[in-house]
Design brief:
about 160 residues, alpha+beta, six-stranded antiparallel sheet, two-stranded antiparallel ribbon, about 25% strand
Length: about 160
Amino acid sequence: MLWGKVVNIPKLWKTVFKGQFTYSIDSKSRISIPAKIRKHISPDANDTIVMTKGLSSCIDLYPLDEWQKIEEKLLKLNQFQPDELRFIRMFVQYAHEDSMDGQSRILIPQMLIDYAEIEKEVLIIGALRKIEVWNPKIYTEYLKQSPLTYEEIAAKVMTE
């Protein structure tokens, strides 16, 4: 062979979710993960999603491999320090794991539906390493609450 042995270099998977999608939650409390988001889920996640209470009235969804990175950080917290222990409890108590079914749906637990005030329609937003699920009305209100404009926020946070 003229060029030598061909070596397959493994693709370094980069989980970066982006975009927004409006879907419905079905009568069994399942939502579909949009194909444009699903294609960025690493094979290491084994089609498994861990969901928990988000910080802004939404539900945070993490592919299993991304969740494991968060667990590693949580394990480094000092469980004898009251604030760190409180955060661990508050964050992990809502965690629920589910595998996507054949139609790429996951079951959302009722406690998370209640927390995010999900009704029939959901807004699914890619947020880099996680996916957020919002009640669209609450998300619109969340955006309106900012005292800064989009441009002002960009100027403030996008510095070198």
